[in-house]
UniProtKB/TrEMBL annotation:
Recorded topology in the membrane: Single-pass type I membrane protein
InterPro entries, per the entry: TIKI1/2-like, TraB/PrgY/GumN_fam
PANTHER family, per the entry: METALLOPROTEASE TIKI, METALLOPROTEASE TIKI1
Protein name, entry field: Metalloprotease TIKI
Keywords: Cell membrane, Glycoprotein, Hydrolase, Membrane, Metal-binding, Metalloprotease, Protease, Signal, Transmembrane, Transmembrane helix, Wnt signaling pathway
Cofactor(s) for this UniProt protein: Mn(2+); Co(2+)
Co-factor note (free text): Divalent metal cations. Mn(2+) or Co(2+).
First-level EC class: hydrolase
């Protein structure tokens, strides 16, 4: 029942009201039917929408990619114990082999191919910092691959905000997310 769902929506009582909505980074199709109408209505009625990051800004995407890389001249193979690196490489080879069978006909119909998708997700993995490789590996599952091409909830809402010509912004900069993750030592990762 819609009325029984937790909306993750907080209202800041002022005139006009402001809203704070908690999202998660999953394909919006997995959660959209569970978002209560009060949250959807608040979004529709809002003229200005701020997101965690501006995922529609090419600079943001470029900065996110750059922040994941090891310093120039360093490679993951030099940082990881040999056995872990070997197992990681074997796993990524397995994923690359399996990916064509994980893809949906709809994805192929939209021109999304396994090699392209693998490279988009895992390309240049040898140059990424361990924490980002860990996050990457966690997203290389059959379920996640089948949902690629569907925007995560945050991006979907940002695209909708643009389509509806709402003013948008971001509350964080890439560096504010990147530096804490990059500051983790190997044992923390």
């Amino acid at each position: 029942q819609q009325s029984e769902l937790n909306s993750f929506l907080w209202t800041i009582k002022r005139d006009p009201p402001s809203y704070f909505f908690g999202t998660i980074h999953v394909p919006y199709t997995r959660v959209w039917d569970f978002i209560p109408e009060n949250s959807k209505k608040a979004f529709q009625q809002s003229h200005i929408v701020y997101f965690e990051l501006d995922l529609t800004d090419p600079y943001t995407i470029s900065a996110l990619t750059t922040c994941q890389l090891l310093p120039q001249g360093e490679n993951l193979q030099d940082l990881l114990p040999h056995d872990i690196y070997r197992r990681l490489k074997q796993h990524l080879d397995y994923v690359k082999l399996m990916m064509p069978s994980w893809m949906t006909p709809d994805q192929r119909g939209k021109g999304l191919y396994a090699d392209y998708l693998f490279n988009a997700i895992a390309g240049n993995w040898e140059r990424k910092r361990p924490v980002w490789v860990m996050l990457m590996v966690n997203s290389l599952t059959e379920v996640d691959i089948k949902s690629r091409g569907v925007p995560v909830l945050d991006l979907y809402l940002a695209q909708e905000a643009e389509r509806l010509r709402k003013q948008t912004g971001a509350v964080e900069k890439v560096e504010e997310q990147c530096h804490p993750l990059n500051g983790m030592n190997f044992s923390q990762v």
